[in-house]
Amino acid sequence: MAQQMRKPKRILVGLKTLENAVELTTLACRLGLQKILRAGERVARRSHLKARTLVLRAHSASYALLDELKEKKSDLAVLGYHHGRTLGEIVFGTTAKHVAEHSPCYVVFGIPPRK
User: Fold this and answer.
1) Which of 57, 77, 94, 109 has the smallest number of Cβ neighbours within 10 A?
2) DSSP string spanning the chain?
3) Cα–Cα distance, 62 to 68 (Å, whole number)
4) The pTM is what?
């Protein structure tokens, strides 16, 4: 039986490109409402929410995201997913898959339509 997710208070929004910033932040606001990442600050303010900006640069996006989720005790992660697959993703797997498998909280993916 599926467990119902409680309303998250801390949400991590993973942004790779500017194109998906508004879409993913809007999705995060609709799903939970509270602490949102940088590119979506305007969206968060319009939703009357607090936003704190943190820009991470790391060799491995998945490990950096997982570390932040654990350290900040996030209730929800909202991440984008792209359809293109690089050779590295085929061999080692995707960031999305790794985060989904090891996340300490719920993860929601915004998947844009194929172009």
Assistant:
1) 57
2) -PPPPPPPSBEEEE-SSGGGHHHHHHHHHHHT-SBB-GGGHHHHHHTT--B-------S-HHHHHHHHHHHTT-SEEEEE--S---HHHHHH--HHHHHHHH-SSEEEEE-PPP-
3) 10
4) 0.60
Q: Which residues pair with 35 in a beta bridge?
A: 10
CB atoms within 10 A of CB 92: 13
Strand duo 106-110 + 76-80: pairing: parallel
∠ Cα 32 38 40 (to 5°): 55
Residues near 11 by Cβ (< 8 Å), separated by ≥ 6? 28, 31, 32, 33, 34, 35, 36, 74, 75, 76, 77, 78
Largest CA distance in the chain: 43
Single-letter residue type at 113: P
